[in-house]
Sequence to fold (350 residues):
Amino acid sequence: MRATTLIAVACTLATATPVRAQSLLYRSPNLGGDWVVDPGVVQFNFIHRFYVTTAPNRTVINSPTFTFLTGLGHNLGLGLRFATKTNIPLNGTTNEGEALARWRILGGAEGSEGLALAVTPAYNFKAKSVDGEVAADWTRGPVTLQGAVRELGKAFGSSSAQTALAGGVVVRLSQYVALSGDYGRLLGGDTAATWSAALQVLIPGSPHSFALEVSNVSANTIQSSSRGLRGGLTNRLYGFEFTIPLHLSRFKPWFHPRAGVETGVSGPAAATVEVAALHFGSDTVRIAAGQIVRWVNRDPLDHSVTFEVEGPASGPIPAKGSYAVKFDQAGTYPYHCTPHPFMKGVVIVE
Ligand SMILES: [Cu+2]
Fold:
């Protein structure tokens, strides 16, 4: 399949389901979470932790974990994790890889009020172990409570299974800043509990979030996140996490330059929403059933109008492009922009 075909397929898929964003403002450092992303998006999260050895060497020991997760639609995700400082005491490489799938069984877009729940089956290549996690969170206003139950098929190089429990809390001080912490431990056995604390920031005007972290966990796979390090200075690592959503549709203009395109239905609109400066100009519009709403993109970059419920979706609206939808049924239709999930609006059809 040619790259253009692949991208076209990804874009078609991207228009079919509502977005799921991924932001550190709803998740503490050692809880993998219950988030999934839209089809056509590859979420890349980069954790970098480190500690410094004692004098005279004072060597900085780095401990990164890379996570890639893509959306398959229907609240399913598929991903890979790779860490270079495993906490699984087996001979050989210190690298640790994990393949994972995720099904978000319950919950709206990330950050929605109420309960969300996901299951994450995984395979750990270092431990040759089938692992899994059931994770839930409950959000009300500025607070998100998290919990996770993990099952480790062959725990830490042994041939026996172990269960771990973890819980965390995130408190959002504003739209852009949050504090979080978590605690977890394996059931049974004399092992160190895991803990972390973080200051999280949503970078304004961007889809990125950033966290400054302290923890006693060196690698953030399901296994390595379940047992704390112990021993001297290595029981505390400092570091950061950075989240990067890569929207494959962003690359579409390489193949199909198109500005000023009009998509959706044609005809006079009862309401026009100007999209400019990364905002939907009127975030609430009221129309009567049978009328048309048109979105006009005044920004030099792509936006989209993606409804939270199954229904019409614009796909990328290029600069100077527009998109129009006719609403035949009364109701409330919240929507957002897929490349910029913080852009939100609602159409109320009366
Ligand atoms: Cu946008």
Q: What stands out?
A: Residues 102 and 221 are 14 Å apart (CA to CA). Residues 3-248 form a domain with the Porin fold (CATH 2.40.160.40). The longest strand covers residues 60-73. Residues 303, 337, 339-340, 343 surround copper (II) ion (CB under 6 Å).
